[in-house]
Amino acid sequence: MSEDLTNLGVKAIRDGVAGGDFTAREVAEAFNANVAAAKDLNAFIVATPEKALEAADAVDAKRAKGEDLGKMGGVPIGMKDLFCTDGVQTTAASHILEGFVPQYESTVSANLWKAGAGMLGKLNLDQFAMGSSNETSYFGNVLSPWKKEGSNAALIPGGSSGGSSTAVAARLAPAATGTDTGGSIRQPAAVTGITGIKPTYGRCSRWGVVAFASSLDQAGPMARDVTDCAIMLEAMAGFDPKDSTSLDMPVPEWEKGLNPDLTGKKVGIPREYRMDGTDQAILDSWERGKEWLRDAGAEIVDISLPHTKYALPAYYIIAPAEASSNLARYDGVRYGLRDLPEGAGLQDMYAATRAAGFGDEVKRRILIGTYVLSAGFYDAYYTQAQKIRTLVAQDFEKAWGQCDVILAPTTPNAAFPLGGFDGDPLAMYLNDVFAVPASLAGLPAMSVPAMLNGDGLPLGLQIVGKPFDEQGVLNAGLAIEQRSGFDATPEKWW
């Protein structure tokens, strides 16, 4: 029975608990057992089985009284360790925050608990969400549950939300929260064969989420399918007066509005995304995606996003610049790690704490950020990058005159082995090439599984939509999902 329960997604669990087919406690126990048995994947930094059970019991008690169970009633989820959780350690996978236990709850996690969800634990990630492979965490690498056919080599689960993607793909959780700054929900979702959506910037509150780049960070759901993402996003989103960038708009009923019929819709294919070096299987999946959307009634149109080639370099100037400012607060004075060498003054303490607390990738990005913001380089780099950002956003604006959504690959390749890009950060950054433009423009974008490549590894397709049109993105995603018939799951080895 318990195995059966862990094969269910958000909707099936919520409806099953509400209908009395099983209790929320049974569901929580089944997933807690899967989490405990999957230590080898290293998806969780902290497991919180008691939290999952506590929330489940509250839902079961509500059901006994005939009360409303909420949008996520009885669904246990994984929480990326970037969201502050009251009374549970929150580290952003960095040594500098090890042992930090917030006394408050992030708005997104509070919304989810309000909707009846429970927490299975805090999920591993790239340190401060900086990375595309989940190899920069202080708490060790997360492993993908997938293996190449005929190989035993460990693969990356994508990043930065690698703990989230592994947890959902390996059936340790029916869904998980992720954050996406330049692709950190979509890329891990694509390489592990699950679904993830980054909503419009401002749709989910950033309050209580450890900041990386404040003008880009956006929380979103990662789950088994499009419907589950729609349900969870509804529960997460909403206006928050505590976040000055939060959208003061009602949350649409995305689940009710799901409709895979795309008759009359136009799907744009950006010619600039046909990049040299893209894996052939990725291009094949893109062709299939076009066919599927055509079958759903959409018209396929060619569009141009001419500033695409500048998007990645602009992103890797803007994001580190904001990170260097955001991470200045970790200084060993108020919370987190403090390294105080003997006889050290204040500056020495700052330097020692930050040297010991931050990992190499975080240091790299802080240095890049500090450099591009320094006198003499500010105009040459940062101001230029902001101008490019505006041009990238204008490209999309123009494209919306020709199409309703855009279809593109999510990643340039399938999952690669751990250590595949050691010593070559630039090659690693190229993993974000298809994901970054939508982030710079603050647009909703999602990844849905498309097919397996020749090695038996999942590939994802990305749909980018107009601002605030998550519904259009979800509907196009649903049309692909229904036609791809993707139901592959990793073979259990852990």
Structure commentary:
This protein has helices spanning 2-6, 10-19, 24-36, 49-64, 107-114, 162-169, 186-192, 226-236, 280-295, 308-326, 346-357, 360-372, 378-399, 425-429, 436-440, 470-484; strands at 44-47, 76-80, 118-123, 175-180, 195-198, 218-223, 266-270, 299-303, 405-409, 445-452, 458-465. The chain has 494 residues and is an alpha/beta fold. The chain has a domain at 2-260 and 468-484: Alpha-Beta Complex (Amidase signature (AS) enzymes). Helix 3 (24-36) runs antiparallel to helix 4 and helix 10 (308-326) crosses helix 12.
Quick recap of the structure?
The protein is 37% helix and 13% strand. With 494 residues, the chain is of the alpha/beta class. The strands form two sheets. It has an eight-stranded mixed β-sheet, sandwiched between helices. Strands 1-3-2 form a three-stranded mixed β-sheet, sandwiched between helices.
Structural class: alpha/beta
What's the count of strands? 11
Mean pLDDT: 96
Spell the H/E element sequence.
Answer: HHHEHEHEHEHEEHEHEHHHHEHHEEH
How would the blueprint of this fold be written?
Elements: H1 2-6, H2 10-19, H3 24-36, E1 44-47, H4 49-64, E2 76-80, H5 107-114, E3 118-123, H6 162-169, E4 175-180, H7 186-192, E5 195-198, E6 218-223, H8 226-236, E7 266-270, H9 280-295, E8 299-303, H10 308-326, H11 346-357, H12 360-372, H13 378-399, E9 405-409, H14 425-429, H15 436-440, E10 445-452, E11 458-465, H16 470-484
Parallel strand pairs: 2-3, 7-8, 7-9
Antiparallel strand pairs: 1-3, 4-6, 5-6, 5-10, 9-11, 10-11
